[in-house]
Specification:
Elements: H1 2-11, H2 20-38, H3 52-75, H4 78-82, E1 85-93, E2 99-100, H5 102-115, E3 116-121, E4 124-130, E5 133-146, E6 153-165, E7 171-180
Parallel strand pairs: 1-7
Antiparallel strand pairs: 1-2, 3-5, 4-5, 5-6, 6-7
Length: 187
Amino acid sequence: MTTQLLAHLELDKESPSLTVMHRTLIACTIVVFASACSAPDRAPAKTGAVTAADSTARDSAAHEAHANYVRVINSNNIDSLASMLTDDVIFLAANDKPMIGKPAVRAWVDGYYKAFHTKWDKPVQEFVVSGDYAFERYSYTSTDTPVSGGKPIVDTGGGFVGYHRDPDGVWRVARDAFGPDHPPATK
């Protein structure tokens, strides 16, 4: 195939229908294919091939991370929640600055838990596992009851979580971006 493309390049070199961009695209395609075909085999990270059973167990553990995350959010316990976060976690909450790193997220959640007793329902809309990462799109209904008393605040929205399987084999939250599915209430 590479020889045919090169021959096509030579035959149509003077052809007005084959522009410089076309020749460049064909040349880049040849380089990419040649590189891919000549790349050395990389040794697998683990000894032995990944079996279907290994893949199923990995995927099951990743899906269990979602259930664990919802459980620790609803525990209203900052230490439990922090145990589910990677050290480099990032939270992106609507109308707030990004929280980068476990200490920043922990401080934000601690303030949230001191102000509200929360209960989240987070149905999964989509869940994809790829190696040591899993990606989840979810919807949510949160019910926040002020600790100081008062009427519960119910909100709905959606979000996206990125999980990472850490070296200890535990799936933890690496990224969580969430926000309401409606405009802010007017005062």
